[in-house]
């Protein structure tokens, strides 16, 4: 590691943990946090889009003040070495638990919800704050475990980068232009289990939290058509289709007076804003949102999966959240 890139001694020390197929977050997130990356290693990492948006940034826009990824572990040991080389991470560990006692917080950079209780448990038990990639969980047992941990003041947060997308933030500021909202639609690629939360968090904050009543999913595993009903009389339709890359992150809001549309394009801005919020959480101890606003979206993801397995029947969120 070049001497000029040795992390500052007062930085929050972060561990980047885990990598699964189809998700290159350890490469991109480590580069964004550390503020430096090896362009050739990133080019060879298997995710061309990462190099595209990193190379498009100004040097001064990379890096997050007060934090540095000092340790890395991936499920594949060769990928651990590759991520370390890509983002100038000084320590590669043999087991994820080996970072305990050497870092101040951990990032679990995988997006398979049913694995997250197991991946997070050693660090929750050790009292380390944890950021968990979306979705936090995808089943009732996992939601209950995270609820129990929250109840005894364990520190963790989870989010989709879509919550921070500048395109949707701009749309939210213009909501009055549609009058009273009636229908909100989101188009998203990949699977409901892993990317349904991307679709949901694109629009979740456009309506009052706690108002979602029921969910149906009349699609199938490759083409999910998920209908949410909100107490304000708004219908939210989230479509996640495996190969719908031509409309990834398209949002429409229709109301009594108008129509608004937006499309997600600025991946770097969303990722960096998401990671800055986690670092701010570590620095202040103040959670970025009430826990109920983490539970409700997870309940919607769970309900969408359960409704699909029931042939499209309604699943009431109160039954999951009780």
Number of helices: 11
The largest pleated sheet is described as: 7 strands, mixed
Strand order of the largest sheet: 12-11-7-10-9-8-13
Q: What is the approximate shape?
A: globular
Given helix and strand content, the structural type is alpha/beta
Helix content: 25-40%
What labels describe this entry?
single chain, 322 residues, alpha/beta, 7-stranded mixed beta sheet, 6-stranded parallel beta sheet, 11 helices, 13 strands, 36% helix, globular
Could you characterize the architecture of this molecule?
The protein has 322 residues and is α/β, with parallel strands linked by helices. It has 11 helices and 13 strands. It has helices at 25-34, 39-43, 48-55, 77-87, 116-125, 140-151, 166-173, 192-203, 267-284, 292-309, 317-321, and strands at 12-17, 67-73, 91-92, 105-108, 130-133, 156-159, 181-189, 212-217, 223-230, 235-241, 250-255, 259-263, 315-316. The chain has a 7-stranded mixed β-sheet. Strands 3-2-1-4-5-6 form a 6-stranded parallel β-sheet, with helices on both faces. Helix 8 (192-203) packs across helix 10 (292-309). It is globular and about 55 Å long. 44% of the residues are buried. The mean pLDDT is 96.
């Amino acid at each position: 590691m070049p001497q000029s890139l040795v992390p500052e001694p007062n930085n929050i020390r972060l561990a980047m943990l885990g990598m699964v197929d189809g998700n290159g977050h350890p490469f991109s997130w480590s580069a964004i946090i550390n503020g430096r990356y090896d362009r050739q290693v990133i080019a060879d990492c298997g995710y061309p889009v990462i190099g595209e948006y990193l190379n498009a940034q100004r040097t001064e826009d990379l890096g997050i003040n007060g934090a540095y990824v000092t340790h890395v572990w991936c499920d594949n040991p060769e990928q651990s070495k590759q991520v370390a080389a890509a983002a100038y991470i000084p320590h590669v560990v043999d087991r994820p638990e080996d970072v305990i006692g050497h870092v101040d917080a951990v990032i679990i950079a995988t997006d398979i919800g049913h694995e997250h209780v197991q991946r997070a448990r050693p660090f929750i038990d050790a009292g380390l704050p944890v950021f968990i990639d979306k979705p936090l969980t995808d089943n009732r047992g996992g939601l209950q475990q995270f609820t129990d941990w929250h109840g005894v003041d364990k520190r963790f947060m989870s989010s989709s980068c879509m919550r921070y997308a500048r395109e949707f933030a701009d749309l939210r500021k213009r909501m009055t232009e549609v009058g009273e909202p009636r229908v909100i639609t989101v188009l998203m690629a990949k699977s409901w289990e892993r990317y349904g939360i991307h679709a949901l968090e694109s629009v979740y904050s456009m309506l009052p939290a706690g108002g979602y009543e029921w969910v149906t999913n009349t699609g199938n595993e490759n083409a999910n058509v998920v209908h949410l009903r909100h107490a304000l009389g708004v219908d939210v339709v989230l479509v996640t289709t495996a190969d719908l890359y031509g409309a990834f992150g398209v949002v429409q809001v229709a109301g009594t007076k108008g129509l608004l549309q937006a499309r997600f394009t600025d991946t770097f801005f969303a990722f960096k804003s998401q990671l800055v919020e986690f670092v701010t959480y570590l620095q202040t101890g103040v959670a970025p949102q009430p826990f109920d606003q983490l539970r409700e979206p997870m309940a919607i993801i769970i309900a969408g999966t359960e409704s699909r397995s029931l042939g499209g029947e309604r699943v009431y969120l109160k039954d999951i959240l009780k």
